Amino acid sequence: MFPYHPRLMQTLLMETTASLPTPLLWATLPIGAYLIGSFPTAHLLARTRGVDLGSVGSNNYGATNLGRTLGKPWGIACFLIDSIKGALPVLAAGWMLGALGVAAGGIEPQTAWCWLATAAAGILGHTLSPWIGFKGGKGVATGFGALAAMWPVLTIPCLLALVLWIALVLVFRMVSLASMVAAVAVPCAVLVAALSANGLTGVRAVVPFFASSLLVAAFVVFKHRSNIARIRAGTEHLVLQKVVQKEAAQPASESLSRN
């Protein structure tokens, strides 16, 4: 038996894929990511409870609408599954392309764009799933998983965006607002990190990742256009309302009991 060497296996795999025509890699990786991303998590979870998610709440097939309809645990479970389905094809593609674990400056532009196309295809599959009439979620959870899987170039910016998302949800209680701001924060963090590390030279190295994360952010904001209208009208759905209502109701019930 030969000993298992991860780096040797990765080198052999890179040599194998290098012998394939470039158009074949460009086709197979994004198509595979699209099919995995198209798995309609929220729709199937809602169906287990006899609910058609497309006809309740915001009519959106995403974790937020599922959590609002069936409860917080369902929404969290959906978010995790959607994040994983976004991350898996990106991790596999990064390993096959030899980009996983490599700094931005060490990745060839063609490799970077192929890797990013795989991530984008997974997000597109989530938002335009053929299994539910080319409908889907808004790409937040799947996009987070896909971009965070690009270790180490986009992982830390995505984790910072997640912390920002949690803080904004706790303060404003609007998942939509937190999602849009967090999405925009990713390309901003990539740009700031590159500038602080290597100046303009560092920026040139991360151009594919900055441009792609910026496009993903624009796509997320576009998908939330109805939420933007509700935010401006003051009618946007709020989360954590039950906690607030309980705290407000306790003093009232205490005063009634005293009377």
How many beta-strand runs? Answer: 0
Relative helix content: over 70%
Q: Classify the beta-strand content into a percent band.
A: under 5%
Please give the radius of gyration in angstroms: 21 Å
User: How many angstroms separate the termini?
Assistant: 82 Å
The coarse silhouette is: globular
Query: Domains counted in the coordinates: how many?
Result: 1
List keywords for this structure.
259 residues, mainly alpha
Report on this structure.
The chain has 259 residues and is mainly α. It has one domain. Helices cover 74% and strands 0% of the residues. The chain has twelve helices and no strands. It is globular and about 50 Å long. 41% of the residues are buried. Mean pLDDT is 86; it is low at 12-21 and 243-259.
Task: Briefly characterize the structure.
By secondary structure, this protein is mostly helical. Helices cover 74% and strands 0% of the residues. The C terminus is likely disordered.
Topology:
Layout (H helix, E strand, L loop, with lengths): L5 H13 L3 H16 L3 H7 L15 H8 L1 H26 L11 H19 L12 H9 L6 H18 L2 H31 L1 H17 L1 H9 L7 H18 L1
Helix pairs in contact: 2-5, 2-6, 3-4, 4-5, 5-6, 5-7, 6-7, 6-10, 8-9, 9-10
